[in-house]
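B., you asked whether I could sanity-check this one before it goes into the benchmark set. Here's the sequence:
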Amino acid sequence: MDPTSYDSYYCGGGAEAEPAERQTASVRERRRMCSINVAFVELRNYIPTFPYEKRLSKIDTLNLAIAYINMLDDVLRTPEDSGEYIQKCVHMARTGQYGAPSWSTSDLLARLNWIKWNRLGIEPIA
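And here's what the prediction gave me:
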């Protein structure tokens, strides 16, 4: 960077170029935020939510997605029947037993009641 451009940048000179650069940066930032918001909308379509629930915040969406992914991972890894395993984990969490999976202490437990388990061929979670 030559000294004149350094001075003009940090000392207020060259102001005619700043608004265009700032506008370009603002457009990029709006596009970035739009793509992030679209990704959150799509993620919310894959996690269990209450039918009456307002849109989840981004942090709530992420926390619920993490818990849900962990639950699905546990279900896939267990040699037990899926329905029985979930029932056992829910019971462990509700009775405060040591060793309940991390996902079973989350907001996910309340949402498990809204899943149509019969359509999945699994007894409803009690």
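One thing to flag: The mean pLDDT is 79. Otherwise nothing jumped out at me.
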